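User: For a benchmark we're assembling, each entry needs the component sequences followed by a predicted structure for the full assembly. Here are entry 17's components. Please fill in the structure.
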Amino acid sequence: MTRATWRTRIGFILAAVGSAVGLGNVWRFPWLTAENGGAAFLVLYLALIVAVGVPGLIGELVIGRRSGRNPVGAFRELGGDRFRFLGAIALLAAAVVLSFYSVVGGWILRYTLSSATGAYFAAPGEYFAAIDYGLGAVAFHAAFLFATVAVVHLGVDRGIEASTTLMVPGIVVLLGGLAVWVATLPGAAEGYAFYLSLDVGYLRENFLDVLVAAAGQALFTLSVGAGAMLTYASYLGEDRSLAADGTLIAVLNTAIGVLAGLVVFPLLFSLGVSPGQGGPGALFVSLAGAFGDLPYGRIVGVVFFGVVLLAALSSAISILEVLVSYLIDEHGRSRLQATLGAGGLLLVTGSVAAASPAVFGLLADTIANLVLTAGLIGFLLFDGWVLGRLAREEFERGAGRLARLVSLPWYVAIAVALPVFLAFTFVTG
Ligand code: PHE
Ligand code: NA
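Assistant: Structure for entry 17:
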């Protein structure tokens, strides 16, 4: 059986952007920004996207295209059996991330529907407390997972490419519309001021904490470390510049992330809610509260949570595909069997997270960061010290003059500087 490929280059780019743009942009990023001093965090985060995220992402793409395999097969193919464990880390990271991601996806699905009925308008805090964990959360998590399975089972081009080609432009248009609309709200200016004003003093005093948080977010937002980008790159048929594609993916993801901030902060400030108090869940409670108080709140609520839902779905698809490609390549399963098998596993692990706040918190706060960082360190050391010259060759394949010029600095970065830096954040975090 011949392996699936993307139909078009733009199809691959949009699928990868769909993976990158997700809860990380719309939920984790505004919340971390608020918690870490506003623009101080934003500046450091942007710097780390450039210095760590982009080279790391390209390092992952290189392994995928070079091997044309799922993560486990890729490391076996390129490095021999003793490197299969790197693929196993990727599978583990994918399972960990999707287990809590689909729980949040379930919450969002529920909020999208209940925005239409106004179910949470009267008491947003109580509403969230009633639905966050338990049987309802398990059911909505299952529904979100089912939607993910439904897309992935249709295949790389007919399922993933076709759906993300619609979803990503949809996210941009709807977010843009929301950004324009919130600009008209009274109090929006304070939100921009908070988001865009740089507090150098805060940054100086809390540099290490902000650095670690920003580094973790830079990896999470670009979907690196779990093999999702590796797997997507393994479906590339043509010789495009991975440096150019990786940079474009990061630029689009960052732009959409900043746009999300331009929606969320003015919205919160227009209601006099200060972000960053009460942790990650509080953001959604405050936003939901905002919709309850606004004119056309139901419509705005459906649109806002609908955008988040699309973003979450297109990311979940890429994570599920890691496990599916493994089952297809390594175990000879049909795509349907593989999708149902991986979906069944996540139904169980995700249900545990949906039923237990302790498990959810452990996965979302601690374990996810650790496995993603460990995964990326492994990928980059493999690029640098096992592939070596071949990694640079792959980097330069299809590349223009500029990319060939940065090939050596990139190589030094991924072989030495980034693993050292990531190991440092791993230990500090
Ligand atoms: N990048 C996604 C987001 O920002 C999350 C993700 C992490 C997706 C790892 C795939 C792999 O929401
Ligand atoms: Na992202």
